[in-house]
């Protein structure tokens, strides 16, 4: 039999995929100006959170079941949340803590104390920095900023490179991603240069189905022709991350904006279509002008975390195993309406098509037919009474290896 060459994740990608849920925090100059994309002219004088508490951000993230938090160290306006040596346009020039504060440090520390992982977003597009128009000079500037962040704040789980505003611009991606590999070899690289994880393609938090870990989008979704020449460096295994703000279309905090808060139902729909389709979910919750996550958002996101737990923390039964057919027997007749499937992805994504069936009146009844399983697939179907259910893999590459096959009965 010929050996099967399947794409496989790295140890770091495996760890990251197991995290499943991250919290994004957009905070900075925009927070104080009721805007999403500052043009880089707002005065540092306006950066004055009155009671900033990163512990509250990290505590909320942890309480709601998030395993990592990513902070916008610098957004497109160029204002830096850490006292960088590269520019005066930072917290150093603000009245907050008399210019002696460091939001990145406080946030990294808070995450460590709460036991969640920390990552950073550093916008390549910089609307403030005068040297931005000089590609070579700005590459140096950006590399220095990135090095400060990669070396000064402990282990990072992810570095988020945003493509917005950079259409047509050529950065030295090899140099940039080499820095991440050198200083933070365990960090995921989001979507640029030599990405190890990819953008799902929308900001609604919704993955298509199937969403294969080996999709080729990451190799073609870049912004310049030059970057295309780097794309062969993209590994074959590139899992997707779904990002979405908890307040519709708003990444930064805005006054009187509670009406745009997503409902619990909308969040659950996002969960089923992101984590439930094998991707990570990165949900944005923005601190307000106090430097705190607003009470309404905190309440909603905790409700969200609790609802996930309510639905999926107590399986009726579960097994793991290998082969084309895995059967779960239950000692009595029960109602079920959900199944969770997880492949042992360390050995590649093997299942290509499957059917879930339940035994009823001596016959097997089809409940769901699917293609990808990958890290996780959550299937929801009409409630059925049964004591036997099976997963039949119709098509696979190599022997299917299931890490988890579990059943649930979710009550309204
Ligand atoms: C986009 C940005 O332009 C938004 O402001 C936000 O940062 C989002 C996550 O990515 O591309």
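^ Assign residues to that structure.
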């Amino acid at each position: 039999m010929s050996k099967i060459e399947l794409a496989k994740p790295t140890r770091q990608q495996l760890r990251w995929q197991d995290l499943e849920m991250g919290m994004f925090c957009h905070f900075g100059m925009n927070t104080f100006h009721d805007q999403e994309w500052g043009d880089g002219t707002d005065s540092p004088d306006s950066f004055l959170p009155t009671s900033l508490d990163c512990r509250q951000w990290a505590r909320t993230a942890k309480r709601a079941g998030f395993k990592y938090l990513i902070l916008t160290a610098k957004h497109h306006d160029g204002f830096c949340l850490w006292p960088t040596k590269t520019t005066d346009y930072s917290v150093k020039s603000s009245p907050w803590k008399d210019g002696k504060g460091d939001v990145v440090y406080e946030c990294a520390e808070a995450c460590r104390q709460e036991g969640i992982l920390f990552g950073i977003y550093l916008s390549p597009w910089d609307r403030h920095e005068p040297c931005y128009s000089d590609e070579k000079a700005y590459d140096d500037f950006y590399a220095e900023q990135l090095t400060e962040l990669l070396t000064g704040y402990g282990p990072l789980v992810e570095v988020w490179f945003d493509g917005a505003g950079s259409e047509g611009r050529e950065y030295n991606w090899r140099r940039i991603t080499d820095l991440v590999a050198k200083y933070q070899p365990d960090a995921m690289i989001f979507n640029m240069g030599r990405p190890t994880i990819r953008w799902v393609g929308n900001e609604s938090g919704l993955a298509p189905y199937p969403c294969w870990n080996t999709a080729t989008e990451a190799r073609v979704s870049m912004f310049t022709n030059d970057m295309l020449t780097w794309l062969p460096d993209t590994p074959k295994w590139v899992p997707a991350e779904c990002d979405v703000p908890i307040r519709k279309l708003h990444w930064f905090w805005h006054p009187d904006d509670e009406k745009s808060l997503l409902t619990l139902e909308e969040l659950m729909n996002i969960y089923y279509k992101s984590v439930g389709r094998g991707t990570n979910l990165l949900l944005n919750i923005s601190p307000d002008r106090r430097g705190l996550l607003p009470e309404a958002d905190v309440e909603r996101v905790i409700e969200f975390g609790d609802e996930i737990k309510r639905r999926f923390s107590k399986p009726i039964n579960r097994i793991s195993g290998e082969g084309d057919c895995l059967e779960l027997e239950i000692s009595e007749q029960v109602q079920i309406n959900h199944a969770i499937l997880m492949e042992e992805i360390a050995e590649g994504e093997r299942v290509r098509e499957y059917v879930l069936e339940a035994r009823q009146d001596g016959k097997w009844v089809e409940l769901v037919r699917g293609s990808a399983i990958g890290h996780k697939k959550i299937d929801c179907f009409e409630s059925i009474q049964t004591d036997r259910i099976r997963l039949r893999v119709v098509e696979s590459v190599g022997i299917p290896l299931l890490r988890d096959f579990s059943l649930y009965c979710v009550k309204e």
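The longest strand covers residues 377-396.
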